[in-house]
Structure formats: structure tokens, C-alpha cells
Amino acid sequence: MTAATDATEATEAQVRQLSDEDVARLDAWWRANNYLTIGQIYLQGNPLLRRPLEPDDIKPRLLGHWGTSPGLSFVYAHVSRLIKLTGQQAIYLTGPGHGGPALVAAGYLEGAYSEIYPDVSLDEAGMLRLFRQFSSPGGIPSHVSVTTPGSIHEGGELGYVLVHAFGSVMDNPDLLSIAVVGDGEAETGPLEGSWKGVSFLNPARDGAVLPILHLNGAKIAGPTVLARKDPAEVRSLLEGHGYEVIEVEGADLPGMHHRFAAALADAWGKIRAIQRSARGGDWDGARPRWPMIVLRSPKGWTGPEQVDGVQMTGTWRSHQVPLAGVKDNPEHLALLEQWLRSYRPEELFDGAGAPVEQVRALAPDGDLRMSASPHANGGVLTRDLDIPDFRKYAVDVTAAGASRAESTRKLGELLRDVYSANPDRFRLFCPDETNSNRLGAVFEVSGRAFAERVTDADVAIGRDGRVMEVLSEHNCHGWLEGYTLTGRHGMFATYEAFAMVSASQTVQHGKWLQEAKRLPWRAKVPSLNVLLTSTAWRNDHNGFSHQGPGLIQVVLTQRGDVARVYLPPDANCLLSVADHCLRSRSYINLIVIDKQPQLQWLSMDEAVEHCAAGAGVWEWAGTDDGTTDPDIVLACAGDVVTMETVAAARILRERLPKFRVRVVNVVDLMGLIRPKDHPHGMSATRFTELFTDTVDVVFAFHGYPGAVHQLVHGRPDADRFRVRGFVEEGTTTTPFDMTVRNRVSRYHLVMDAINNAKRLPRGAADLKAWCERKLAEHETYVIEHLEDMPDVRDWSLGDWAERG
């Protein structure tokens, strides 16, 4: 037995055994936390009960959630003691997000809250401010929100505590993430799918997650499934996920303190043993059986047992505000005062209102306090990525639209070398689609992470892999969130349609980033980079279920200081955009481009200039000489619709040579917004240079047409924009037929140009009739030949004269 082993076992024994003084400290801290929790829910005056409670001491609106809070603070107290004894770095994530007052109270007792918010001082005046601000106008939310020191997980939308916890410990070997799973949260689909995080951890390189399933029996208005199951069934379920289950149950004190201390010591000791083995060369590579705790305690523990003769503690009635009529009901007011005084606040806070030494003594020192952990303010730990020069991965474009390439394959080569240069702070997260999305070059330097059994048939997979593939958008998205919020960088790549599976997570993360920007103490974190490929327009073979560009619309609705949407038309633009996104901080960067071979338009120098501008006129594609306004503007945003737009412009050039056409390509979608509404919004002068103020614009868009109308609102004569895009017309068909069904094909764009131009040269009517014939020819051809017409399928600018 090594000295390190001896030391760990000795410390584990210290954590396990509680002296009378330990129990007294735990009890005092827990009582203080419960008192502060209730004060936040109810009080706007008389914070220390220096006189009897009066109706005016009660808030006009009683908001908050009591039921889960005492269990959360009970666990917090014990983990704080563990940290103080062991020096373990830990953060605390709460699935029951409405337990906000308990975690705010914990940060206050540790002193970190007052360090960040000096007005909420450790005295009677600060306590009153703490109470009044909770869930009040101008105050803080009822969740464990971004304003809560020590938090990386709000929990308002349930289901993500474990994915955030697992993401936080990847490539973070010294961190222990305590993840309290509420039994209501355990009923959600994302949470049920996230237990499998242990199948992807490498104990030699990663930290550890300690899940604590908190079964207190009830949700808002009824029982929870797992709390009503036979404990043996619950244990079997969790053991099937791969955990060693440690159970603690009861409400008796001090017995519960002793039992939970032993359980926590047991769990911590097992975690340390797993890590010690893996890091010391004794690991056989098999997936460890990581510990977890099932804690069964009453809902509303230590609260009013009954109210008006109705049972409260241990039932759903204690979920929110057990005493709802306090301001107007003298009996309820008296019961609230009795409840508050049951914690004996005069023993917990001194004459000035500060926590007494017995309470303060439980807290670890400095950054070891969970409310002060730098891991929960990951921007302070973030190191810039070492990114190779993206220009060296360029596609050689000697002539626009003359050659094809798989654009995302070039991105895969860049990401491969980002992996190599950053072995401890970059990961790709992808739902079993890395190769499918043409990003497989990363497997040249890293396999897929996998801690389960590996067979001879497996390729690029094993315990040392760092490419994260699991067939769950929720897991991939959540892991990346936890990874970036604790200071590392990454990208989530998925099929476009199925990004909607985790779209709500994108929204919630955007809200977090938006609120964090308002807090000077929150350091900026690496951006959440989302790559959508296998897009609606090229999922012709998979059919309607795979055809949906909805995430663009979702991200567009988010605040301008957070949201970014990029639609690079080719590989070199994609490389330029990706480099920018990987270097950015505290944004949601949405990049949309297909994986299939596509025409390449710009040289690398041209692409860099074009992406920096966000949009530009492609003079080579149109017939606009720039001296006067064109007859029509053909605009485009998105790879497939860009090809259709350029093809439409070429048709007009060849068949109506005197018709002046300007082609505008947009990469940065946010540039269309007015600058007062988004920091990327182009100036009025620049907008006019591109789109004029009066000429009609036929806009071919990758997503839903309404998005462009939303973006150009407030621009000069916005009604002149005629937008074509995805209108939910899809099936299993051909690539070009997708554009035809949604009326964004080159022929539809030509007809739109003719229909909307104010000046038409001779021959326009004949050209329109020709387009109609081509569409009819297409419809017949695809049914007979099961593929697109050759002059469409093989079209490029290089051979247009020959095929025209």
C-alpha cells in the first residue's frame, strides 16, 4: 500500500466519522441555510425576528420553492465538509432548479455572495437585501441562475443536470461535479438518457461526477415515479446504467448526518480509488463502476408538518410555498414565525446579523468554496485555442463555380489539427455522425471516447478517444455546454433537422450567456459552436423527416449580443467562419452548410474578405456594372440556394443580356438587421450599396422565408424583398426536385426576376415560358429516370456555354 493510498484511506475515515462537534457544525450550518431560504421566500422586513412578525414584514407576492430546498442544503453542507477535509475541487449542480434560495443562501453563508455583491453584506442590512431581492422586481430569479455564484446550471428547464456535470469534468481531472438529480427531473427524457455519461469518462484524464438522486416523493401536484417504485427496482435500474448505488434514507437527526457522511465518504473513496488506479498504471481499461447516492428524505423536510389540518411535509403540498395566506391569515402568520424560530436564529447569527463562527467554520477556504470555484466561472480558467492557419486547408479555386468539393471535409482537416494542438481543451461532439458529416479526419489523431467493451470490429474507438459520439443530441449539446462553461472549447455537429431535438437547450444556453454578459464578475467563456450539416436541401434521399431548417429561426429570435448565424457558401468561406467562431467568446455561433460535393466559388483571399464583410456583390455572377441601379437584385444566403441563384443569373445573362442583374451573397445573416438591433447589422449606407433603396430583391434563402422578412424589417421599402426558401415541401426525391418543390429553383428565381422587375427587355415573356417548360421537363424526367436532368445535375459555370 502506497503512502498516497494510506493518506486517502485515512482521510476517507475522517469524512466517514462524525464527532459531536462535526454534527453541531453541520446542524448549525443547515439550520442557518434553511432559515435564510425561508426568509427569501417570505420576508421583506424583520429579517432576524427581533420582534414578532407582522403582516407588513411579509412580501406582497410569495414566490419560490421550499420542498426540495432543505435536501439541497443538507447535501451542500456535507460536501463542504468533505472539501474542507480533503481539499477536493468540486462544483455543485442542482437538477431541482427551483431550489434557488437554498443555493443563494449557501453562497451567502460561505461569504462568496457578499464578495461579489457587496450590498448583500454579512449583517442585518445585507440579510434584508438578500431576502427582498429574491424572486422580486429588480432582484434575482428563483432558479439557481447565472446570478448565483458557483452555478453553471440553471435548472429552470429540467433534464440537463447530468449532461452539464459530465461535460464539466471532461479533460478536467481534478474536478468533482456533484449533480443532484431531482426525482421530478428524473422523469424527463433528457435526464433518463444522460445516465450513460459514465460510458464515456476516462478516469485517467477526466474528473468525476457524483450523481445524487434526491427522492423526496413529489412534484408540484403529485407523486414521482421513482419515489413510488420499489427501492429494489430503482437500484436495479441504476445498476443497469453502470453505477454502484449507495442509499441513504430517513429524517431523523442526528442519524441522517451520520448516515450521509458515511455514504459520501464511501462514494468519494471509491472515486479516488478508481482515479488512483487509472492514473497509476494499474487500470485494466474496463469501465469502472462509478458510485452514486440515492437520498430519500421528506419533501419540505423540517417545514410545517400540517397546515389547517392537512399534511404538508412529505407531500406535494410543500413543493412551493407551504403557507400561502400568511399576510392575511393570522394563524398562518403565527405558524410561519414558529417555523422560522424553530431554527433558533439567535444561535446562528450574531448581534450584527453575521453568521457565527460555528456556522462559518464549515465552509472551505477561498476558491475551494463551491460558490467561489473558478470552475463555475470558467472564463477565468479559459486558455485560447492554438489554431493552425486555416488558409493552409484552402480549396484551390481558379475559376468560380468550375469545380466541386465536400466543404465540411476541409473543416474536418482543420479540426483534426486543432485536436492535435489542444489535447486538453478541445472536443467535437456529434451524434454518431462524424464520418457521415465528412469530419472524419479527426479520427486520424483521436478515436471516439468509449469506456464500454470494444470488439475487433470497432474502428477508432476506445478509452483514450476524445471525439464524443453518442446517439443523443441532448447529451452532445449538454456535454458541450458543461465543457465550455468550465473553460474549454468545442463544436457540436449534427444533422440540421435533428438540431431541433435539442433546440430548447440552445435557447436556454443563449439566455444564460445573455444574462452573464450583464454580470462583470462572470468572465466570458468559449462560444457554443453549432455546425448544421446534412441539410434540408440535400436530405432528398432521407425524406421529409430529415428536412427542416428550424434552428436558424430559433437562434434568430435570441438577443443580438449572443446570437450569430453564418451561411458560408463554400469550403473556403466555411474555414474562415470556423476560425472566427472558434476564437470567439460567449456567443451561440450557428454555422449551416451541407456535406455533399458542392460548387466552389471563392479563392481563400476572396473568402476571407467576403466573410469579414458579411455580405457582398458577386460581380462576376451578374450583369450589373455598378454605374446605375440594376433591374433586379438576386440575393442568396445558403449553399444550395447560392448555386440556384448563380445559375438563375447565368440564365438571365445568356437569354436576356440587356437585363441588369446584381447578385448579392450573404454569409453573416445578422448583417441584414439594422445596426441598432444587432452589432453585426450593416450600416444604412452599406445596405443601400448592396440592395439599393428601390430595386426589387428576389432573395433565395436556406431557411424559412419569414426569417428574411424579419431581418430586413425597418430597411428601406422592406416590402420589395421577395423571399424564396423552405416552405415544408419535402419527400424522398432528387436534390434539384427539393428546390423545385419549394419554388426556389433557378427557374423559379428567373421567373420571379421577370415578374418583379420594373423594366423588362424584349424576350422576357419567351424566357418565362421556357422556364415553365423546363420545370415540366424536370417533373417528367425525375419520375422516369430517378435522378435529375443532366443539365441540372452536372451544371457548373465552367461548362454553361456548352450546355446553354
UniProtKB/TrEMBL annotation:
Domain Xylulose 5-phosphate/Fructose 6-phosphate phosphoketolase N-terminal: 18-380
Residue ranges of coiled coil: none
Cofactor section: thiamine diphosphate
Keyword tags: Lyase, Thiamine pyrophosphate
Record-annotated Xylulose 5-phosphate/Fructose 6-phosphate phosphoketolase C-terminal domain positions: 595-796
Organism domain of life: Bacteria
Family of the protein in this entry: Belongs to the XFP family.
PANTHER family: PHOSPHOKETOLASE-RELATED (PTHR31273:SF0)
Protein's UniProt name: Phosphoketolase family protein
Protein's organism: Dactylosporangium roseum
